[in-house]
Amino acid sequence: MRRMTGMRAAFGAAFLAMAAGAGAAEKLKVLIVEGQNNHAWQTTTPILKGELEKSGRFAASVVTTPPAKAPASEWEAFRPEFKKFDVVLTNYNGDPWPAPVRKALEEYVAGGGGLVVMHAANNAFQDWPAYNEMIGLGWRDPGFGDRITVDDSGKVVRTPRGEGPGSGHGPRHAFPVVVRNPSHPITKGLPAEWTHAVDELYHGQRGPAKDMDVLATAYSDKAKGGTGTNEPMLWTVPFGKGRVVTNVMGHVHGEDVGAVKSPDFLALIVRSAEWAATGAVTTPVPADFPTAAK
Ligand code: ZN
């Protein structure tokens, strides 16, 4: 009897250990890159990290670059081990990374790693061709590359390099976001249209725009300093075996983080990170996700 109890206890303990191990293994490892930005990265990174962890799906780490204009010797210490993570989220817009770091990110994504790029992170690295390929469109001049918009029928329109406006945005305002691919895991189950918080509405983004899947757009109203067409807000680009998601929303105005803290932006960050890491989204749509009426 005593022996049976002992065996049962041992079996129970082993089972619990296995279950706990499986649970821990299911957490996706996300690395947030920060350290330079023309937006308050010191404020936004903790918000992003907190939200990713709150989802229960992620274990989040942060790596901080040297400050702007740091000497090369300081950059020697910046060698993030991207390959140890399922997905990298960049909240970085600043000085170019050293060649070994650029190469490491390229190899990481090409080998199947996930990358999520938010707001001004697509302003970075104009002279890094692989990065431009990964993001598809960046904050660039019209002569840099093609422009992608979506017409009212939902058709993707490509405007050649040199034609039409370059990157910009009008005064901040709240605007509707329209889903253009409702069957993608990131957008599946979201409202067809919702009202985003007061934010910058990026327009005229430029780049190679190769194999872009535009998931959501916003109408860039000329009355609000815009372009009079539907500008991409959220899109994906494949890079080798990897998945890249760019979301140009999420401006921080001084210390006003309303656009980043808006439930739709945070939900999109979590869903984009999960999809970039795994190709699927299991995180439920939060109850406070905005609607078109709100
Ligand atoms: Zn901004």
Describe the protein in words.
The chain has 294 residues and is of the alpha/beta class. It has one domain (26-278): Rossmann fold. The chain is built from seven helices and eleven strands. The strands form two sheets. A nine-stranded mixed β-sheet has the order 2-1-3-4-11-10-9-7-8. It is globular, with a radius of gyration of 21 Å. 46% of the residues are buried. Mean pLDDT is 93; it is low at 9-24.
Entry keywords:
single chain, 294 residues, alpha/beta, Rossmann fold, nine-stranded mixed sheet
Describe the main β-sheet briefly.
Answer: 9 strands, mixed
**Can you tell me the CATH class?**
Alpha Beta
Total number of domains: 1
Please name the CATH architecture.
3-Layer(aba) Sandwich
* Structure summary, number of beta strands: 11
DSSP summary: helix tally:
7
How big is the Rg?
21 Å
- The N- to C-terminal Cα distance equals 65 Å
Give the H and E element order.
Answer: HEHEHEHEHEEEEEEEHH
Q: Which residues sit in consecutive blocks of at least 5 with pLDDT less than 50? A: 9-24
The geometry reads as globular
Name the hetero compounds present: zinc ion
- Major beta sheet, strand line-up: 2-1-3-4-11-10-9-7-8
- CATH homologous superfamily designation: Class I glutamine amidotransferase (GATase) domain
SS-derived structural category: alpha/beta
Q: Estimate the helix proportion, in percent.
A: 25-40%
